[in-house]
Amino acid sequence: MHDDGFHLSSEAFRAHGHALIDWIASYLDDIEQHPVRATVEPGWVREQLPAHPPEHGEDFGRMLADVERIVMPGLTHWQHPSFFAYFPSNTSGPSILGELLSAGLGVQGMLWATSPACTELETHMLDWMLDLLGLPDRFRSTGAGGGVLQDSASSATLCALLAARERVADRPADRGAVDPYRRCAVYASEHAHSSVAKAVRIAGLDPSLLRLIPSDDDNAMRPDAFADAVTRDQQAGLVPTMVVATIGTTSSTAIDPVPAIAEVAVPAGCWLHVDAALAGTAAVCPELRWIHDGVDRADSYCFNPHKWMFTNFDCDAFYVADRHALLRALSVTPEYLRNPASDSGEVIDYRDWQVPLGRRFRALKLWFVIRHYGEEGLRHHVREHLRLAAGFAARVADHPDFELVAPVPLNLVCFRHLAGDAFNAALLDRLNDSGSVYLTHTRLDGRYTLRCSIGQTRTTQRHVDAAWEHITRAAAAMDATGERG
User: Fold this and answer.
1) Is 407 or 3 the better-scoring residue by pLDDT?
2) Cα 213 versus chain centre, distance
């Protein structure tokens, strides 16, 4: 079904495209027939593949058949409604169609000039998001700041750190110094995401100057401990460069006290980056916008629509209050990228807001999602997930053999069996090996803790009820066989 030049003909593309859309729709309709977690052994998928690429082109139907035969057994089904592991990485119909359109258009949106619509739609979506989440106007594109779509919160943290580092190097006291970066101290909660430590290394800063600040009983950063660390560093001749405040930590969705952190960071000239990767979506509900208290003093902020806002990976919304430090850190303009629009200074070139040069048309899927659901639809689903999580937490609290290990401000429930670490680890393995449910773990106060993250597009009360039944039944079976220890 190739044309004379070996390309896929328009007729064949239409036929295969319809078949693939039908396949995806059927997959999502029937996803509960699959075990949640992949069950293959390491190396199994590669063993099914030919040792060398084909000399002659193959039929699309054969390719799709091999997806069924080879790929499907090796998948963990992130869109399964009984996927309660990590944090969600949701898809939805409008997002998938937006991604398909982006792939079909094949735009490389590195400059405004390379596709004005790619840039301007993205800028507008980031401004829409401020309205959607009630975020401060200091991040709006019409002022000194603005937003950009990154691939992930990890990249957003790195870009924020590069901008913060640039601001340090540009200070009169440090300008011209041989290596001001070796004095840059970075701060984050002991429960902050590992991307902070990675960003420090990539940015060329001294890893020993990353300060992991102790947390309180709710697993949130202690502002007094942060203030003490800043004072000690200043007395040692170091420069407080950036602090990462997390709204919704990965381990427990703890919410760092951003207003109190800002009270320390701002006078010290320390860049305040707020990471709300999962939790930011909750602010579509006006009653939950308290999570963003203090963000009006932040230098940068990010959250991931690709987690809880039904927009498939990758899509991170990253904002800065003043774009100039970011542009100084990331702008490099060779002659072959010069053009009249960029030289005019009247357009945004998003290549200067990220590490890579090239960029995809991510704004299309976000545009489709927001327009399909509207604020009303997004709020409905967030509130439903919160209701399901609260109900699950209540069951844990009422059960004589289980306990809650952390507060449940949003949609993550951290819990454990009273029988101890080894029992909980064995319980998690038994649950995940069953194929009926998938959870992950963390450690809080040194204790092995199970995490149930409720936020999948297709998760309903039925799936949460079944998960709790699997958990309690598996625990009872282990008790009956003497595995309590």
Assistant:
1) 407
2) 22
Given the DSSP bridges, would you call strands 447-453 and 440-444 parallel, antiparallel or unpaired? antiparallel
Cα–Cα separations (whole angstroms), residue 330 to 162, 336, 337? 8, 17, 14
pLDDT above 90: residue 5: no
Range 301-311 average pLDDT: 96
Beta strand 402-404 with 316-320 is unpaired
Question: Does 10-90 carry CATH code 1.20.1340.10?
Answer: yes
Higher pLDDT among residues 480 and 102, named by residue: 102
* CATH 3.40.640.10 location in the chain: 107-360
The two tokens of residue 113 are 């000039």
Length of the chain: 485
Residues pairing with 415 in the sheet = 404, 450
Please tell me the predicted confidence (pLDDT) of residue 1: 44
Helix (H) or strand (E) holding 191: none
Model pLDDT for residues 358-406, shown as the tens digit of each residue: 999 999 999 999 999 999 999 999 999 999 999 999 999 999 999 999 9
| pLDDT tens string 314-330 | 999 999 999 999 999 99
Helix ranges (DSSP H) in 73-222: 93-105, 116-133, 153-169, 195-202
- C-alpha 193/C-alpha 3 separation (Å) is 50
CA 352, CA 342: separation in Å to the nearest integer?
A: 11
Statement: residue 3 has pLDDT above 80: no
Strand order in the sheet with 402-404: 402-404, 412-417, 447-453, 440-444
The helix (H) or strand (E) run that includes residue 214 is none
pLDDT at 23: 95
User: Under CATH, which number does the domain 107-360 receive?
Assistant: 3.40.640.10
Residues of the chain with CATH 3.90.1150.10: 368-480
Cite the DSSP H helix spans in 269-314: 305-308
Please state which of the four CATH numbers 3.40.50.261, 3.40.50.150, 3.90.1150.10, 3.40.630.30 is assigned to the domain occupying 368-480. 3.90.1150.10
